[in-house]
Design a protein that fits this description.
The complex is a heterodimer of chains A (76) and B (173).
Chain A: E1 2-7, H1 14-25, E2 31-37, H2 42-52, E3 56-61, E4 66-72
Parallel strand pairs in A: 1-2
Antiparallel strand pairs in A: 2-4, 3-4
Chain B: E1 9-14, H1 19-34, E2 38-43, H2 77-80, H3 84-87, H4 98-112, H5 118-127, E3 131-135, H6 136-141, E4 153-156, H7 158-164
Parallel strand pairs in B: 1-2, 2-3, 3-4
């Protein structure tokens, strides 16, 4: 299942909070989250968050929007 | 999902009551909570303003703040480029309405940046389980009523705060 998290135009800390909400909403499934955003600060912040949360995170593109793909396996 | 290598607690002491002091505290708190840290904010003295239902006193002031860039959030590019804190003498900011104008500009810029309102950010913190404690001594000292504060705030003293935050305390300065 692919879930799109659209945080375009949002400033820190909202992209992270939107992703967190999506993560807890789909707590029980294997999910791929596609996160769209424009906040440049999140380019480093999102991978840092994913590393701390033990999530696989991949940067797909940075133009025109920043898109990350986050894969969560073995959900709680 | 807690990473055992990370500290599990984050706490902050907020003693300032202006808008530009309120934002960093709530941004740091909400981010830390998102990362599964146990977050405690302790509000004392003017910091109590951050917890009131009525947020009209949360403002920004250019007085005594030479680092503040004051730029018009509206108008043509040449106008937006002017830093009024450099162009105008400081005495201007003592005029009636100047602080309100600076606050309006600050809020407008935050909005254009995609930042949420301070009320919304505070609500998000509570949703994420951030614990907010208002210092009872200063609540009494400054003459606030319990009913002035938003729902979800606890009233206690410094000892309670220290007991809740064994690992670390930070003063936002």
């Amino acid at each position: 299942m692919v879930i799109e998290v659209n945080a375009k135009g949002m400033a820190c800390p909202m992209p992270l909070i939107k992703l967190k909400r999506a993560l807890s909403q789909y707590r029980t499934q294997d999910v791929i989250f596609r996160v769209l955003m424009s906040d440049k600060g999140a380019l480093l912040d999102l991978p840092a968050f994913c590393k701390q949360q033990l999530l696989d995170c991949r940067l797909l593109k940075t133009e025109p929007d920043i898109v990350f793909e986050i894969i969560r396996r073995n959900p709680l | 999902m807690k990473n055992k290598n990370e500290p599990s607690q984050f706490s902050l002491i907020q003693t300032k009551g202006s808008l530009d002091w309120a934002y960093p505290a709530f941004i740091l708190a909400s981010t830390a909570a998102t990362m599964d840290k146990e977050v405690t904010l302790f509000f004392s003295f003017y910091g109590l303003e951050c917890l009131l239902k009525d947020t009209r006193r949360l403002r920004v002031s250019p007085i005594g703040n030479p680092a503040m860039r004051i730029k018009s959030p509206v108008g043509p590019a040449w106008l937006k480029a002017i830093d009024w804190n450099i162009v105008l003498p400081s005495i201007i900011w003592t005029l009636p309405g100047a602080e309100r104008l600076a606050t309006w500009g600050f809020n407008k810029q935050l909005e254009q940046q995609g930042q949420v309102s301070i009320e919304a950010l505070r609500e998000i913190c509570l949703e994420l389980g951030v614990k907010m404690t208002a210092c009872q001594m200063t609540v009494d000292l400054m003459g606030y009523e319990a009913s002035d504060f938003i729902e979800g705030v606890e009233f206690a003293g410094a000892a309670t705060y220290f007991a809740q935050t064994a690992e670390s305390q930070n003063l936002l300065i």
